[in-house]
UniProtKB/TrEMBL annotation, chains A, B:
Identification of the protein by name: Phosphoesterase
GO biological process: isoprenoid biosynthetic process
UniProt cross-references to Gene3D superfamilies, sorted A to Z: Farnesyl Diphosphate Synthase
Cofactor: Mg(2+)
InterPro entries, sorted: Isoprenoid_synthase_dom_sf, Polyprenyl_synt, Polyprenyl_synt_CS
Metal-binding is among the record's keywords: yes
Taxonomy, superkingdom: Archaea
UniProt similarity note: Belongs to the FPP/GGPP synthase family.
Length: 322, 322
């Protein structure tokens, strides 16, 4: 199966479960909790849980499907709470939960999704209790780190001197650890040994960091027509993206571009400056190294279609253009 | 050991752990997360976890101490989030987390405590993985119900026709299920059988509901000098307390008392009205029945000092005057 077909199949299954969840109970809170869940999304974390399980034991992804949902529910919980904190009113083309209802309901909606995630992990079939405890530990640890990462991200907004080390630490927590948990949980529940679980956990961690670096690159390069977002918003807002940090470290002054309205020409100038100075290549190189190291680490796994798909997925994380 | 001595010992241990937690990591988020934890509190849920474990197996409370912390951390998480939702600026005599820092930090602080709770459950010593999975399920289920309960409580604020059934359902979720989880988790981790776990879970559930009924009674009866809170605040605000609901059901009109300023005489009048009409006795009777049924259910446990202390604790829940 091709990666894009696989991802579509997983997304369709998760969409269906989200849809059922939204209809299961007639309470305001459940409606609010399912609002963002049923708004689509790439469902990459569930796909990684399932592929990871399948790479350990053929057929395991059926058994541990509830764990895939646990990861998507967790991701959604963080988005619902992040939207409150960031005051964002739109997400996936729909008004955010705190806008449709109110902040109190949005806080609780996130909290319910959070609880559901742990309930789902315990419901996995054909997995040992030992592996479930490992899964719970990984998810809880990730949530803990995610909160730290979000806190750091918010604190970066009022700074213009964030170091590369600080950036990578924040991204590891905010994006890396949940991908790490996705891969690690899939491996653990499918009965992987310590080496296999560790290799997949590390792959999730590193590909998650690479994913965020690629996001920063896309923000600058992708025209609005392609991405559906404002082009170069990080640059306009002087956000401490990997590009901003590498540029500063290289003595490149981007301050002329820190203004709300940038013309197409100005954006092209900035891109050209970051290309010729090697900043963009440096960022691309960082992401590539993370992906290549992750893939190399999978040598502890037997060859399988699932393993191939995981490696393709890692490549896709940095190949995507929007 | 006497109950009050036991509770003091547990509270001192939990206080010490909270203190260590607050010093463990130097991050804004950890400081915010520990702010309310180190502000004291009765630590009744940890005590119930430990007594419950001890009633199953002598010495078990030492092994599963981390589970006691998990329950206190969970309780604290709900308070931090509730304070944001209710816009409360003081708790245990200190400014609330969102007041000291800001809402974003308070949301994250609650989320971190929530994650910690699940991490702590997995760290318990000398317990089977099976029992840890049961403990995680109970905690996650409680958190889910707690959110529903809080949502219902908030929705009651704009209503004056809440039924006794709706009230009891809300109180079961908002207060009962976490006490139920405390007792059930202690029993499960200590190796209790299904009957024992179930009896202790039910005891926690019912005593939690009785606790809230007693809280409603205290709100009316306890003079500010004793409770440190405004006397009869529920009555002033026409809150749908058990007394308000039983009074309405009995055709008793309390509307003259729904005003911000009530004199001592007016409060005394209202108390007298609710005493002579039997409303207060009815509420007391409900709480007593819940406690007595719970205690009777403990016949599946062997006699022990811990079992006696649990029964005394249940009695204390409705004997307390503030």
């Amino acid at each position: 199966m091709k990666l894009d077909e696989y991802l579509k199949t997983v997304a369709a299954k998760v969409d269906m479960e989200a849809d059922e969840y939204s209809k299961a109970v007639d309470s305001t809170l459940q409606k609010a909790a399912s609002h963002l869940l049923v708004s689509g999304g790439k469902r990459l974390r569930p796909a990684l849980v399932l592929l990871s399980a399948e790479s350990i034991r053929s057929g395991a992804s059926e058994d541990i499907f509830q764990a895939a949902l646990a990861l998507e529910w967790t991701h959604t919980f963080t988005l619902v709470h992040d939207d409150i904190m960031d005051g964002d009113s739109l997400r996936r083309g729909r008004p955010t939960v705190h806008v449709v209802w109110n902040e109190a309901t949005a806080i609780l909606a996130g909290d319910v999704l959070y609880a559901n995630a742990f309930e789902y992990l315990c419901r996995v079939k054909n997995a040992t209790s030992e592996s479930k405890v490992i899964a719970v530990q990984m998810l809880a640890h990730s949530c803990h780190e995610l909160c730290e990462g979000q806190q750091e991200d918010v604190s970066f907004e009022t700074r213009s001197d964030v170091t590369l080390e600080e950036y990578l630490s924040m991204v590891r927590k905010k994006t890396g650890v949940l991908y790490a948990a996705a891969a690690g949980i899939g491996a653990a529940l499918a009965g992987g040994d310590v080496k296999q679980i560790s290799a997949l956990y590390t792959l999730g961690l590193n590909t998650g960091i690479a994913f965020q670096i690629q996001d920063d690159i896309i923000d600058l390069l992708a025209p609005s027509e392609v991405s559906g977002k404002d082009q170069a918003s990080d640059l306009r807002e002087n956000k401490q993206s990997v590009l901003a940090i590498l540029a500063r470290d290289g003595g490149i002054d981007l301050s002329a571009y820190h203004k709300p309205d940038l013309s197409k020409e100005e954006i092209a100038d900035a891109i050209s400056l970051l290309e010729t100075s090697g900043v963009l290549d440096k960022a691309r190189g960082m992401a590539e190294k993370l992906i290549n190291d992750s893939k190399a680490g999978l040598s502890v796994l037997p060859d399988s279609e699932a393993k191939t798909l995981i490696m393709e997925m890692a490549d896709f994380f940095i190949a995507r253009r929007y």
